[in-house]
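hey m, so remember when u said the tokens were messed up on ur end? i reran from scratch. heres the input so u can diff it against urs
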Amino acid sequence: MSDSRPARRPRWLAFDAVGTVIFAEPAVPQAYFEIGQRHGSRLSADAVKQRFRDAFADRSEATDDNTSVHASSEEGERRFWQQVVAHVLPDVDDEAACFNDLYDYFARAVHWRCFPDVGPTLEELQQRGYHIALASNFDARLREVCAGLPDLAPVERLVISSEVGWRKPHSGFFDGLCRVLECEPGEVLLIGDDHVNDVLGAQAAGIDVIRIERSGEVSEIPDSRPHPVVQSLAELPALLQPPT
């Protein structure tokens, strides 16, 4: 279903963040459950998990002010997470205090982990001459998170949706990616796990992509072009030739 190597030789390797190089520990719904309990919520952990999943169901639709749902800003991201907290934990004693605790919680690196394959792979790729970036639908909190994770030391630049003004898969995000990296689409390779945001978004912008499927369940993505699929980032060095 996929090519064994990327079609072009990139200068920049841009990694998606959450699900590709980092993950929350404990998982995000569990953190919501635990912090919600501190603020008086009586919902079960399973109920919180389901409500968290449901909170994202409408993000593909237009927002109240009729701007694209993919438009992003620090204020807009904060407002979105306020709506998520209100939906997931409707029974807390003080909604504002609960939100502030959760928002601050996920800004701290101690609550995030890198996958075991991240540090060795990024170090090897950097030694081979690649420039390393993160390209994420996130907000400025990602900077504090990354600064506190030693395995991400090879990362030279962060491209964050709230700072470039658009979320993946919108073309504006990938225009911003190339602008921040000071390169053409053919000079960057995106590595990510999301079928729509990473694979289809990057390909529509003329950017090559490698998909990571950590579960090992590799499926076809409708409307996508052939692309390499890996189960671990440790497979990347064998797929990539040294940059020119």
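this time it looks ok to me. The radius of gyration is 18 Å. if urs says something different then somethings off w ur setup not the seq
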